[in-house]
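During the practical work, I selected for study one protein's amino acid sequence and its backbone structure tokens, as given directly below:
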Amino acid sequence: MRDGKKSVLVINGPNLNLLGTREPHIYGHESLADVEAAGKQQGNELNAHVDFFQSNWEGAIVDRIQEARTDGTDGIILNPGGFTHTSVAIRDALLGVDIPFIELHVSNIHAREEWRHHSYFQDKAKAIIVSISDSVCLVGELS
């Protein structure tokens, strides 16, 4: 908690800085700045802090997760991008800080290439959110 408000950290992984221009038929036309503005507005409406962080570097994401342990972060929303399928280091950082997290994907990774179906985070996430053809599917239980 910060200033008596819940605090959520949204972490976006590699290539998400290209939202709106990278394969818009898969990832949509909204830029990362658009997504962040909407998230901050929703946070204000819910009387919560919403902070954003994006990096193409695995170590920077690990560092930011570890910082969350002491900065008042109550929950993490992680869109790991390509690190979904490769990063034991990010998984270990999330488990090490003991902050609940939600795994988020702009596309439905289960409807794409076979190698995208595996996630290093899905078994530990409180919920998984994936986009399914202009709608959202939430899998999991939030408590």
